[in-house]
Amino acid sequence: MVRADKKKNTFMSETTNGSTAKNDNQSIIRIEDLKRDFIVGSETVHALRGVTFNINKGEFVAIMGTSGSGKSTMLNILGCLDKPTSGHYYIDGVDAAVCSKDQLAEIRNKKIGFVFQSYNLLPRTTSIEQVELPLLYNSNISAKERRERAEHALELVGMANRANHTPNQMSGGQQQRIAIARAIVNDPVILLADEATGNLDTRTSYEIMSLFQKLNSQGVTIGFVTHEPDIALFTKRQVMLRDGKMMKDNLVDTQSAQAALEALPASSDY
Amino acid sequence: MNLSNLLKVAWDAILRNKTRTLLTILGVVIGIASVIAMVSIGQSSSQSITNQVSSMGTNMIMVMRANQRRGGVSMGADNSQSLTISDAEKIKREAKYISYVSPLVSAGGQIVNGNNNAIGTLQGGSVDLLKIRKFDLAAGSNFTEDDVARYSKVCVIGQTVIKNIFPDDTLNIANVVGKDIKFKGIPLKIIGVLEAKGSNSMGQDQDDIMIAPYTTVQKRFIGNDYLQMIYCSASSEEVAEDAVTEVALLLRENHKLLDHQFDDFEVRTQAEMLSMMNSMTGTLTTLLAAIASISLIVGGIGIMNIMYVTVTERTKEIGLRMAIGARGKDILLQFLIESAILSLIGGVIGIILGLILSYVGTSLMGMPFVVSYTAIGVSFVVCAATGVFFGWYPAKKAANMDPITALRYE
Ligand SMILES: Nc1ncnc2c1ncn2[C@@H]1O[C@H](COP(=O)(O)OP(=O)(O)O)[C@@H](O)[C@H]1O
Ligand SMILES: [Mg+2]
After folding, report:
1. Is some CB atom of chain A closer than 8 A to the CB atom of B260?
2. What is the ipTM of this complex?
3. Superfamily for A21-260?
4. What's the gap in Å between A68 CA and the centre of ligand 1?
5. What is the pTM of this model?
């Protein structure tokens, strides 16, 4: 699924007129003094109060913080679902803060993969169709290529044998694997996950984290929102938010999810 | 997203929601089917009237006795005896636009052949009557001018009469030519048998007919010289109007009417009768189609309802699609295409059902089955338009959703 880098970089510089700021040290995500206010009635909620950091290619970053600290708000902006009130956000050299709605949709389609807490699979739809879905919104991809890439993505997440299953025929962990396959099928610049293990038991969480680690080792850059410190230990770097401000940004002594899985007592599940 | 992908997405959604699909198209099916059936049946009935009228002769002009007004009091038509053979002769002699003229008199009574008898009407006319009424002979011959001059006891009969009084000869109608029957006790020789015409749109049997020279009917059965009607045939359809004016002038002259006096007769063209009846059936068709259109609108609102519910129900799906790169436009088109496909499926089924209904309806009523291509075409367009029109609002609502809010929707 991870393709040659030069192929990725061609798209935005031609199709989007957002100001470009090429970065030499491979920062595929660069946010500068990012603020996001929500107006609720007469009050203004400052969800993000000026956050600055970079994510480089190949990183596996956990965005940490207690509930309400602004993690999801941050991830939505990183994923081009939302725009900052002020500040800059460069993804792959393009300033998303000045992009139109349609341009943001195109960035989401070609450069971003989302994994959600509640999987968000379409009901009554087979896995292969779920995974093909993002490619349907890219007119340059033929039906044949779409199918091949979806099959490959399913293989990567270990779900090739569930291609014709519908969500109600699969466990939560399996559904999340399908969702991950859907997120990587477009060969994104960054894979963004919001509490991706939030609905799963410990063993399944570790299995999913092991999958994320595997994808990361194959070159997928990951932004991973979680409020669980033990899950964050499987990433490579932690960014800590509190009340919309960045408190900490440090490297992690990465644990192997596979090892943690093997260390689990056999009786702690099922 | 290109069109084939959009179609795939919309089609997948339709297949995934079979119950919803069924419920949605039901309204459209009923709407379209009733429009098609109503219009078809309406057109069939006007077609059958047209057929009947043209089978009687499109150029036919009828001169009837009119109500005579004396001092503002309208006298019943049967009391007036204003049409005479001299009127018919004058028209025949002087009218430029008329090719055939025949007086019409008739007498009702019992027809007897041995043990078989029936009640019928004997119509009397000139030798032209068959041409004017567009009757052809299946066997034998028409009566002649000589028969008219000599009040010959001869007649030409229709096939229903044969069925009634010659039950053994229905398969070989030529057999009856030359046989004698009795009408009101007076023997008449059958000299010709008419081709069958079937029944007309009013259900009248056009083959229950007996025709004799008018002189025979006047002298031997009625005992007076007055005419009930004069049938004329305009030399062509184009001159029918001129022919009417001409006939009216000739009759006024013959009746010596003064300028201030009303006509004591009425001249009607077959075309007038036709347009009168057509306007009647036309009004009826329009009315029925209008009622049926209401059910089409109801069907459209049904689509809107269900699409609206669908959009709300699928909020999360819309959020997800947006998150993976669907633009507002893609979502809008997806839902529009979905509702257009739904209503088109409904339309196709409706058209088929409507045609079946009108086929059954028209054959039960003994009318010709007319496929109204206009109605089908219009229904199809209306269907697609209904889908787009009523799908627009829900689709717009979907397209304008904020992806984050939509994703969070439970
Ligand atoms: N759409 C919104 N409207 C108003 N307030 C919001 C909205 N989204 C988030 N917030 C507020 O912003 C703050 C951060 O929320 P969020 O980013 O969801 O936190 P987290 O994901 O870390 O739990 C919270 O106080 C929340 O109430
Ligand atoms: Mg959150």
Report:
1. no
2. 0.89
3. P-loop containing nucleotide triphosphate hydrolases (3.40.50.300)
4. 6
5. 0.70
